[in-house]
Amino acid sequence: MIERRPTRQISVGDLKIGGDAPISVQSMTTTKTEDVEATVAEIARLEEAGCEVVRVAVPRERDAKALGRIRQRIGIPLIADIHFDYRLALLALDEGVDCIRLNPGNIGSKERVREVTRKASERGVPIRIGVNAGSLEQDLLEKYGYPTAEGMVESALRHVRILEEADFHDIKISIKASGVPLMVEAYRLLSKSVDYPLHLGVTEAGIPPSGLIKSAIGIGMLLAEGIGDTIRVSLTADSVEEVQAGYDILRSLAIRAKGPLIVACPTCGRIEVDLFAMVDEAKRRLAHLTKPLTISILGCAVNGPGEARESDIGIAAGKNGGLLIRRGEIIGKYPENELVDRLVEAAEALEAGREPIARVATGAGAAGEGGGPGAVTVAASPADR
Ligand code: SF4
């Protein structure tokens, strides 16, 4: 069990972040925010993938003026990402955003900061301070020589102090770097200094799979230590992939699960079906499910029945077909071209709380032939998990 570091709780719209709230998954749109149709369409796809809060870039006044129209048409809280221009922050607040990302040290006088915090307080809108190793203040670069965890934390605490001096405490903080060791060290240090909720991310992680791996290691290490209240995986890819990756990280640490997890073997010389095609098709056709089902698709008797026994639905393939197993019980034995159909049916039935329909197997070359999985007995699971 991971023991979470205690943090204050803030509200971003309806979403609670920090304290005992579930660790939330967020993403950022890639559209020009002023293009309301495109932005709303991307957010709809993100919402469908399970994104719980979304950030949009607000570099110009026309982007800020689009925020209200976007907010009205989406079902998750909206964060406006603002740099340097406090007037954009005021406009975004007027447009009804649920949070603003802004570094108060970069917007000028204390009076400007107070204007923003006053309006944010009136509307119950928190501010995320977002420090990036790549944009550390010049004096800190000179002090530390290059971006260090200490320098990043010093920068974050400066911004925090500015907000606290304005009597504003509705804060969350990110302290990102593109290098995993620096990012991990910075968050560890920061978490010892403040109890504000932390937004975790490896910034500019890059393209998958290396970007996924960097994010999984950096975010995963911190979550395993109990650090972090909301996460964003930053990828040079479709933003929907960021959300899927976020849930995969949470699931890997047994923190949260959403939608089916497919366990599949890498295949080897024992394989007698096109397992890669089966897995691809199953992944695509199961993407609409939301329950955290475990689906195993394995190539032969070596591990297939064992994995299937531990799964909600499993395929143990054999020669030109395979067994379909539901929570330890064999539902049927099907030819290769029917297996995914039956798997999807069974998974949809579990999602809907129904029993899957046991069909009479057509018998074509299913698992068990030629000393394959049919030789294996699969113990019935005593109860549904
Ligand atoms: Fe090979 Fe069978 Fe293991 Fe798949 S489950 S990798 S086919 S031994």
Descriptive overview:
- By secondary structure, the chain is of the alpha/beta class.
- 39% of the residues lie in helices and 17% in strands.
- The strands form three sheets. The chain has an eight-stranded parallel sheet. Strands 11-12-13-14-15 form a five-stranded mixed sheet, with helices on both faces. A two-stranded antiparallel sheet has the order 1-2.
- The radius of gyration is 24 Å and the shape is elongated.
- The relative contact order is 0.09.
- Residues 359-385 have low confidence and may be disordered.
- Iron/sulfur cluster binds next to loops.
- Iron/sulfur cluster is lined by residues 265-268, 270-271, 298-300, 302-304.
Task: Using brief descriptors, characterize the structure shown.
single chain; 385 residues; alpha/beta; eight-stranded parallel beta sheet; five-stranded mixed beta sheet; 13 helices; disordered C terminus; binds iron/sulfur cluster
Bound molecules: iron/sulfur cluster
The percent range for helix content is: 25-40%
User: pLDDT under 50 segments (min length 5)?
Assistant: 359-385
How many strands in all? 15
* Terminus-to-terminus distance: 19 Å
How is the biggest beta sheet arranged?
8 strands, parallel
Whole-angstrom Rg: 24 Å
For the residues shown, what is the average pLDDT?
A: 90
Major beta sheet, strand line-up: 8-7-6-5-4-3-10-9
Could you tell me the strand content as a percent range?
15-25%
Judged by helices, strands and strand pairing, the structural class is alpha/beta
Shape: elongated
**What's the order of the H and E elements?**
EEEHEHHEHEHEHHEHEHEHEHEHEEEH
Can you count the helices? 13
